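Explain this one:

_____
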Amino acid sequence: QVQLVESGGGSVEPGGSLSLSCAVSGYTISGGCMGWFRQAPGKEREKVANIGIDSAARYAESVKGRFTISKDNTKNTLYLQMSGLKPEDTAMYYCAARHGGCTHFAKEYNYWGQGTQVTVSS
């Protein structure tokens, strides 16, 4: 049974920082692509960042320079460090895993966590 469990969400003021974690069991993250997606109310789920087997990271244009994705294969855990948060970053953030290489498309990921809410507001 594959489980992805996100943590670290919360409420912050604009300009603040948050760090998300995704603990994975039943699947070895070093064997595929790991990604962070987000979904705001009334909007489609969108890719935030992903990281491949070779640890190459790719980001959505809207978060480049503000967010950093990383992983610890020994802990089988994925991370997302977010800084310079903006109100438009408010969304449910999901961790996802995919066998093989990275893609932008949520439908191509095999496993998903339940999500953690991030709210940016003054």
